[in-house]
Design goal:
Order of helices and strands: HHHHHHH
Distance between the termini: 21 Å
Bound molecules: fe (ii) ion
Number of strands: 0
């Protein structure tokens, strides 16, 4: 059974490696293929965090100052959500593409550093190993569904509709949604 934090850290290593590569290569075809891989990795990872890990963190940290880390992390995801489509739309031969690739790399590195140095250690203080494994299981199940959507063209239409709806949602609504999920998770752990 996977531990939630170990799983997220493994994703971080992968996405940082892809972003480094993107900032090194110059061939347009290679750049395009890397952007496609980065999009898939980043979107899958942030979706799992937003739907499972962050609500669990929010529930655990609710009555402490650490809950601020949840709001900050959600805002940083929002920034990546804005830069990624701009990178996809940029001409891979242009200076603009290079600038956007650099900005997204810096954003992700900053965000990952905060998760790994602040949020994850805090989560370890707040919940035990057993709960981290339970959250890991939920994340793994969700990942399999998301991966299936990327792999199957028919399901991808569902995915597109979902992400269009997600883009229309202001951060406030996303945060409210996360609050609802965290309440459900909180109620569940109280009931044990
Ligand atoms: Fe994140
Ligand atoms: Fe992350």
């Amino acid at each position: 059974m996977p531990n939630a934090i170990t799983m997220l850290k493994a994703d971080h290593v992968k996405v940082k490696r892809l972003l480094n590569e993107l900032n090194e290569v110059t061939a347009p075809k290679q750049r395009e293929s890397l952007v496609a891989q980065i999009e898939r990795e980043l979107k899958t990872h942030t979706q799992i965090e937003e739907e499972v890990f962050y609500p669990a963190f929010k529930a655990a940290a609710e009555k402490t100052d650490a809950v601020d880390m949840f709001y900050e992390a959600a805002e940083e995801h929002h920034l990546v959500d804005m830069v990624l489509p701009a990178l996809k739309a940029a001409n891979p031969k242009s200076h603009e593409f290079e600038a956007k690739a650099k900005v997204i790399k810096e954003l992700v590195e900053h965000h990952v550093k905060e998760e790994e140095n602040e949020m994850f250690p805090k989560m370890r203080q707040l919940v035990g190993e057993e709960q981290l494994r339970e959250i890991g299981d939920l994340m793994q199940a969700r990942r399999e569904q998301i991966e299936a959507m990327w792999d199957h063209p028919i399901l991808r239409q569902v995915k597109k509709a979902q992400s269009a709806a997600g883009k229309l949602m202001p951060t406030k609504v996303k945060t409210a949604k996360a609050a609802v999920i965290s309440k459900v998770m909180g109620d569940r752990s109280e009931a044990r």
